[in-house]
Write a structure and sequence with these properties.
Blueprint: E1 4-12, E2 22-27, H1 30-41, E3 45-50, E4 68-79, E5 85-101, E6 109-115, H2 125-142, H3 159-170, H4 174-182, H5 186-206
Parallel strand pairs: 1-3
Antiparallel strand pairs: 1-6, 2-5, 3-4, 4-5, 5-6
Helix pairs in contact: 2-3, 2-5, 3-5
Length: about 210
Amino acid sequence: MAARHHLPIFPLPDIVLFPHTLLPLHIFEPRYRAMTSDCLARDRRLVVVGLRAGYETDYYGRPPVHAVAGAGRIIQCERMASGRFNMILRGEGRMRLTRELPTDTLYRVVEAEELLDEGADDPEVPALVDLVKRTCRQILQTVKRATPEMDVLTEAGDPAVLADQVASALIPAPAVRQALIEETNVERRLRRLLAEMSTLLKQLRDD
């Protein structure tokens, strides 16, 4: 049975926190400043979850969020004189939000279960990994960002890590990013990622 956790959520429009990546955040709303203080006093973990369409009408209440999101741990945090925070989150895994919990905090807390990767041993995965790495290098060369520092995107040995890091760095469309965080099958994730990268490369070359 998948492990379950009680975690605070940080709902954001068009943001996806992938495992094995870093996300810088500036925390300024009072409810999320309180959340950050509580996280720092506990295990430093929280879930960054995307807001569903139409959230604007209830942004300061409990707007609907996606069912799958990325859990992360605060690895660096600076409290400013204003009470705001600058932090860096490290993505640690996928979570399915199973239910929202009653709480007396300003922020929302959910029960969430870990989603584990599967399908990484599919016989087609090595070829897909090679194609993703090749297409990644082509994209970086096309936008003139093919530097030694950017080569880290193609150095991951684990296919799941590679897919998440490349998706985080190169895929701009929020809907596609959400679809990729929801895909636990590594072979299917690599295929979807490769299709999106190929489309992006064609667009860049046509411009």
